[in-house]
């Protein structure tokens, strides 16, 4: 479990980013962390990985204080950053010299992922494209079997087939003891993948709901024609129509449009959240 | 599993650092040892009487190369696009510190000494008995190696503390520190003796004796036994507090 309790944090010479931030992430789920630029998504992920220290409050990962960065905790965290640089050595050499630190690393899984991503196992890292390097890191990260996998904009740089491969691989890698956190602006890449939607705005968690609960309570309409105004929670103008979020009167689960949901939550947080109050 | 220090994890870390840093280090080593080889052959051929100077050149390269290598040992940590991997690597701060020190101090000393010795053999054979050739490993060499291992910890701290231009910033810091010490000593002297002319008669024998005996002893103990470990401890805390 990942727990942030009353975390306060500010960058040097900047206004406070997190003020008494609280967040709990349970095992067995994939979390989609959404937010505008500068909302604090990457900073939050860095706190979880122990890469930034809170000025006060606590960030714990499976009971360990993240900022202590002790090896036992780090074996259970793997971070795939948005931007990275890999050394100019062979893919095999990199894997061999880094995999030894992860007791649960599986070469069988790793080779399977490489095959699925169509990556040559004997390639030199410097000869791979950015997207291929990212796929390599995703394969490596999943093969570590770390219980917390943090992916910051994982689909940036991936081609269209690779994005669906990514969704398939990540979904198959999730087990009951794992937490996968995906931060992205490409919300469409997370559809049918995430279990929870967490929205961060100005350093605050303004929305944190299960996809099943969202689809049970909200309906995402491509066109709002004929929908009573009292049922519309959020709408946005599209060419020739209005799309929006409405109350789900049918009681049946509907497909969640993450882009609409995100826009709705950002624009009218209280209206969307009030719909979840039991 | 011990979360502070584990010899198996330390070994793996040393191997990892050696593998990941191998390409640039091998290129630099090739260039340096190649130059040493050429200089050695030229010395053996054109200036066999200058073998002592050749040894001095080797020691200069040994110090400079070691300090530059040390200054770059935490390059992965200081490169924003690489630091994620370094900081989240399941290795304790103590192991990262000790592993990096082992690579830049004992391993560097042994590898450099062996290769330099082999290179030194070439002009030694060329000169034969025609000129006296100083022994490669003598008291002065071991003294120099010992000095390197102490002074290297200054550059080690600079490598851990500074984020960019580690070598140059460390050299500049040493320079500024020397100026500060010089000014401080000068000020102290001026405060004690009022800036007037001072000669031996101004010191009584006891004071002079104690200064002459105590200061070198203290300096000896400080340099050989305290400075190195102290700077390594400071480096540890610098690494421990490091965020991205």
TrEMBL record, chain A:
Record-level Gene Ontology MF annotations: ATP binding
Keyword terms of this UniProt record: ATP-binding, Nucleotide-binding, Transport
Domain of life, per lineage: Bacteria
Listed InterPro entries: AAA+_ATPase, ABC_transporter-like_ATP-bd, ABC_Transporter_VariousFunc, P-loop_NTPase
A matching Pfam family: ABC_tran
PROSITE patterns, sorted: ABC_TRANSPORTER_2 (PS50893)
Database matches in SMART domains: AAA
Residues covered by the ABC transporter domain: 2-227
Statement: the UniProt record of this protein carries the keyword Transmembrane helix: no
PANTHER family listed in its UniProt record: ABC TRANSPORTER ATP-BINDING PROTEIN ALBC-RELATED
Name this polypeptide is given: ABC transporter ATP-binding protein
The organism of origin for this protein: Rhodocytophaga aerolata
Source organism phylogeny: Bacteria, Pseudomonadati, Bacteroidota, Cytophagia, Cytophagales
From TrEMBL, chain B:
Membrane-spanning parts: 20-45, 57-77, 98-122, 142-162, 174-193, 222-239
Domain of life: Bacteria
Alphabetically ordered keywords of this record: Membrane, Transmembrane, Transmembrane helix
Protein name: ABC transporter permease
Species assigned in the record: Rhodocytophaga aerolata
Lineage, opening ranks: Bacteria, Pseudomonadati, Bacteroidota, Cytophagia, Cytophagales
